[in-house]
Model the fold of this input.
Amino acid sequence: MDNITPDRIRNIAIIAHVDHGKTTLVDHLLRQSGLFRSNEHVAERVMDSMDLEKERGITIQAKNASFIYNDHRINIVDTPGHADFGGEVERALTMVDGAILLVDASEGPLPQTRFVLKKALELELKVIVCINKIDRPDARITEVLNEIFDLFIDLDATEEQADFPVVYAVAREGFATTDPEVKTKDLSILFDWIIEKFPAPKFDATAPLQMMIANIDYNDYVGRLGIGRVRNGVIKLGDDVLVMYEGDRTQKTRVSALFRYEGLKQVPAKEIGAGDIAILAGFEEINIGDSVTNPMTPKPLTRLKVEEPTVAITVSVNNGPFAGLEGKQVTSRKILERLERELLYNVAIRMEPTDSPETFKVFGRGELQLGVLIEVMRREGFELVVGKPTVVYKMIDGVRHEPMENVVVDVAEAYTGVVTEKLGRRKGIMTNMNNKGSGRVRLEFSIPARGLIGYRSEFLTDTRGTGLLNTHFAGYEPYKGDLVHRMNGAMIADRKGVATAYALWYLEERGRHFIVPVTECYEGMIIGEHAKDNDLIVNVSREKKLTNVRASGSDEAIKLTPIKPLTLEQAMEWINDDECVEVTPKSIRIRVRELDPHKRKRKAAAD
Ligand SMILES: Nc1nc2c(ncn2[C@@H]2O[C@H](COP(=O)(O)OP(=O)(O)OP(=O)(O)O)[C@@H](O)[C@H]2O)c(=O)[nH]1
Ligand SMILES: [Mg+2]
Done:
């Protein structure tokens, strides 16, 4: 359908806190629009197409799709809800005129609801509120609606913005209704409202071409692709255009291929007019935020600016004794190239060189975002050594400031004590407490971002997996003083060798293990957490002396406490400054930075 006039285009985004049902809703919108053939097999939550998205059940990247409804073209962007991927939401919102704000009928607005709504209101987008999951037995629909209204007011919404339309839904069953008491058979009302309540794109019909690149992609046949909304003018296949980069650099080029979205696919187009989303090729260089303009009267659009990263890790070449055994991409040049490519696609990531040519400092919004990047690289065959996540300090008027987080915790009453105590130790200050009367309590804290590093897994253990913990960046404040990161020392292997069940069994009472028998170890590899605060040097490859007498405690009798291997994020959170995580396609190992015990001692003495 190439002949759709701009008044019949709607550009919309779906925004919400993590897990409130965005991707599920988009799924049903696409299906009910008749996009797929009835016999076509389409994966559930089809927009979560990355492997890691499927595995973890979360959206990581914002993605576009398009469908036709009642002769209207609806360009829709599904966005991630996790705070670490907030840059994706900021990027996506530059393409749309309206947003559907989804809110879980039981959880109500949470920190990321606030963040995404704030961004939408700042851009003066029209917002439709959709209270989702009204099928939950613990739904509190009226209260949640009031909380949403309060949030709009709190965010200084205009009168018009605060007069938002509300629809209720069970995205999972694919229906929406204006009356929560009345179930309907589909999402018709939402389709109708998308067309009625959201404005058609506005543009100046006489103005020359202006388009801002909001995403980039790659196509094996035509090369690098720039994706964005045509603000003004028209873009045609074969047109000469001027790309305007950051600073004053520009580059003339020809549009060598042109596509638009149809469903989830990119299909060829001859021309794309103002208000629509275009995908074009012909660039040697193109970055998110660049403007594509008419070479005769070039006028760039305001560059996309996203919030600054607050967490950093170092990423280095694997210099351990097992380097190169499990991965294919092992050189610093390959790592640098890969990180530079990431910067192109990922607006919220930054990189800086360090004193060593083999080490790069990578900045992101949080440990999850950085962990995902490392995980993706590992699957691509990289071997890396990753350092402890640190926060990014800022000097303001000569005073060191640190990033703060607003933490919202939702736990059963019984756990408020342990949560308050643990966060208090990490310099968290309680700012709000709300007993919902249902046996669950909502607590809010203001805490240095530093204090949260490593807390998530503890929180899950402390609340037996039942607690909800959400965080939101809350600006910079003067440094709050030193914190103890980890109370325990490490158990460090003293030699190269294969871990034996016997040796591990013998070491069980000394602390928690990270490895299982038959793991290949090397000198300086950390095999567990010592129960005491000092490091313990251990021999994990020790064999039981063979004797003729079969005593009790023989090998068959050895029963080790089962362990869960550390995930990449847990390992990153566990380590101290003088430790690091070795990441390969096959293994995640923790080690000390300085493998040689003598050098390590000398260094410790010097510090
Ligand atoms: N009970 C109930 N569960 C729902 C409903 N809609 C979605 N879910 C479930 O909520 C979970 C999260 O759904 P997603 O669609 O992945 O949520 P999301 O907002 O896209 O999550 P992120 O992209 O990671 O922020 C899934 O397990 C869904 O099955 C609903 O209407 N009712
Ligand atoms: Mg999603």
